[in-house]
């Protein structure tokens, strides 16, 4: 049951929902509540408790506290435990006309005989006073009730739509879909969407920080969007800074126990949630295991359930038990006797189908997550199909970036007799004998360079570029000397397809084989002549390089692989619509040869002769 509280102090009448328990406290306070507006969204400044000077306490309460201490010798105890400091200050404004000694604890300093400094009197307002404790308790309940109602409104608002803060895709279906998109498509973790409140404001804050070229985790500022995204991807900084208290107001967990550090509140909440997911015997065993957790050197990444948003760092005890009890998916029994890579395939297979809301038993597609999970439960389709459906190389690629569950899988299989089974890596490429690194001059040049500089190597010859952006020099070199426009060839290819293509071309070049038609030549020079004369400088058939084995690098620490882009990366300083999977291009004066020139036999031979002359000069 709820009541309406009408605020007559404001010019316009505002109506707020107040729970019955809070109303009892309000009646106990009498007319003192008339000074409050109960507008928990308001960020307007409030006057000091003891004077008319105005302060904004929403973002930073320190100016007010310092003013009270320095000017009035007045201290508020346990400020962090107050759910809404603005309402609290408005209420205690009545102390201007009341004797402070009747409401505060009085401290006299320097009152001992012979003190060097004059005596001062300080007043402490804290929850030791019954009225103050009751006020804090009432504000806590009303603020929590308001936040819960706000979360329910956001959950029901399926008409919400907004552009992704990381790419150009427009997302619909509610605020939760925006956070799911960040998690599953960009590997960006901001927490469980069910625990996020004021989600639209949080997205605005994150977008503003990215617009200012600021990393959301370490909060460093970078020169361009390209450098920022490369930093966040390489350092795994796709999460929020846990030490920044500005984000606390966006998480329901912080409203349960005001003043409790979020790490402790999260730990208590996780332990309680984990206990609810276990049966009786498992709960007893889990409690016994807690006594051994203090000796662990480091915590593993938390893992998320394959079917819902339940997350825990206690794997396998809690997570696998949760999936077995609530989703009828016995992961331990399913993966018994399987290799490490087969376990990886199962996890990515299930995550892919759950993300697509597609049943992996009957292949039906559903419109919502709730209907999908209800279907799995009612028809008992939460079981793996035949191995021929999921045991495919494509499921070696993680569906979720930095998936915590994959980190908990052991990387070796131990047989029952205690001996380690041999694991065959299916994506291993053949041993390359004719490697570009066999060139002694090239090896000496690489080993003798400064480690601060990066070295990139051409896909078709031994040319190496050294510097801050060597990959752009390689792109320019291949376009001019090898008639290979890398940006044009990989256009519209996904990130992983670009990785496969680079490794595929490198392997064929080391074999003196044309990557386009697979013709084997006597030497790398003849291969290059054949490729240019035949016009084999475009994208080959996808079936040639889309195998999973080409995900393994042919060249160790290949800079061309490290500089590839993911969806949403761009070279624009203020990208309105980021381009997908584009490469950097700093050579505005690059020469583009029209395709019509290569159709003339004489011109093609002249071009080849000039190209080989330049090539020999570079090698010298």
UniProtKB/TrEMBL annotation:
Single GO MF annotation: zinc ion binding
Pfam family, one: zf-C2H2_2
SUPFAM superfamilies found in the cross-reference section: beta-beta-alpha zinc fingers
InterPro entries recorded: ZN622/Rei1/Reh1_Znf-C2H2 (IPR041661), ZNF277 (IPR040048), Znf_C2H2_sf (IPR036236), Znf_C2H2_type (IPR013087)
Keywords: Metal-binding, Zinc, Zinc-finger
PANTHER family the UniProt entry points to: ZINC FINGER PROTEIN 277
Protein name, per record: C2H2-type domain-containing protein
Organism: Halocaridina rubra (Hawaiian red shrimp)
Organism placement in taxonomy: Eukaryota, Metazoa, Ecdysozoa, Arthropoda, Crustacea
């Amino acid at each position: 049951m709820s009541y309406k509280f009408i605020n007559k102090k404001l010019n316009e009448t505002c109506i707020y929902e107040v729970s019955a328990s809070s109303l009892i406290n309000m009646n106990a306070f009498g007319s003192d509540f008339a000074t409050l507006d109960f507008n928990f969204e308001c960020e307007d400044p409030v006057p000091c408790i003891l004077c008319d000077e105005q302060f904004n306490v929403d973002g930073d309460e320190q100016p007010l506290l310092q003013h009270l201490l320095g000017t009035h010798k007045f201290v508020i105890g346990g400020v962090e435990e107050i759910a809404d400091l603005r309402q609290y200050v408005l209420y205690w404004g009545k102390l201007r006309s009341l004797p402070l000694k009747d409401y505060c604890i009085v401290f006299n300093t320097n009152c001992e005989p012979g003190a060097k400094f004059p005596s001062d009197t300080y007043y402490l307002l804290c929850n030791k006073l019954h009225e103050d404790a009751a006020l804090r308790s009432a504000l806590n309940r009303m603020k929590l009730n308001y936040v819960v109602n706000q979360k329910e409104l956001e959950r029901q608002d399926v008409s919400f739509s907004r552009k992704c803060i990381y790419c150009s895709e427009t997302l619909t279906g509610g605020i939760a879909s925006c956070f799911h998109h960040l998690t599953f498509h960009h590997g960006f973790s901001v927490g469980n969407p069910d625990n996020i409140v004021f989600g639209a404001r949080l997205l605005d804050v994150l977008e503003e920080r990215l617009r200012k070229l600021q990393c959301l985790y370490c909060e460093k500022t970078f020169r361009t969007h390209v450098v920022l995204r490369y930093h966040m991807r390489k350092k795994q900084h796709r999460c929020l800074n846990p030490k920044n208290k500005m984000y606390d107001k966006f998480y329901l967990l912080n409203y349960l126990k005001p003043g409790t550090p979020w790490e402790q509140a999260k730990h208590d909440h996780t332990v309680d949630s984990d206990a609810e997911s276990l049966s009786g015997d498992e709960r007893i065993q889990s409690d016994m295991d807690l006594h051994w957790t203090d000796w662990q050197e480091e915590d593993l990444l938390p893992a998320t359930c394959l079917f819902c948003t339940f997350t825990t760092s206690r794997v396998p005890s809690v997570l696998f038990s949760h999936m077995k009890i609530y989703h009828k998916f016995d992961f331990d029994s399913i993966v018994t006797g399987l290799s490490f890579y087969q376990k990886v395939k199962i996890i990515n297979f299930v995550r892919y189908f759950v993300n697509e809301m597609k049943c992996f038993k009957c292949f039906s597609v559903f419109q919502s997550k709730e209907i999908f999970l209800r279907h799995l439960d009612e028809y008992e389709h939460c079981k793996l199909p035949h191995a021929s459906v999921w045991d495919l190389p494509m499921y070696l690629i993680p569906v979720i970036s930095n998936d915590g569950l994959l980190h908990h899988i052991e990387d070796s299989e131990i047989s029952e007799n205690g001996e380690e089974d041999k694991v065959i890596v299916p994506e291993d490429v053949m041993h390359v004998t004719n490697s570009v690194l066999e060139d002694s001059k090239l090896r000496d040049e690489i080993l003798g360079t400064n480690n601060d500089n990066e070295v990139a190597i051409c896909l078709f010859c031994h040319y190496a570029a050294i510097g801050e952006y060597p990959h752009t020099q390689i792109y320019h070199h291949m376009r001019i000397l090898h008639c290979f426009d890398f940006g044009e060839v990989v256009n519209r290819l996904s990130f992983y397809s670009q990785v496969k293509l680079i490794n595929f071309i490198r392997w064929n070049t080391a074999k003196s084989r044309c990557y386009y038609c697979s013709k084997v030549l006597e030497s790398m020079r003849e291969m290059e002549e054949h490729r240019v004369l035949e016009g084999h400088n475009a994208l080959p058939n996808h079936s040639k390089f889309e195998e999973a084995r080409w995900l393994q690098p042919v060249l160790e620490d290949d800079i061309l692989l490290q500089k590839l882009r993911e969806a949403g990366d761009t070279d624009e300083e203020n990208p309105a619509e980021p381009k997908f999977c584009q490469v950097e291009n700093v050579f505005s004066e690059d020469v583009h040869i029209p395709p019509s020139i290569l159709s003339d036999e004489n011109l093609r031979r002249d071009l080849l002769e000039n190209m080989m002359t330049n090539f020999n000069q570079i090698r010298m």
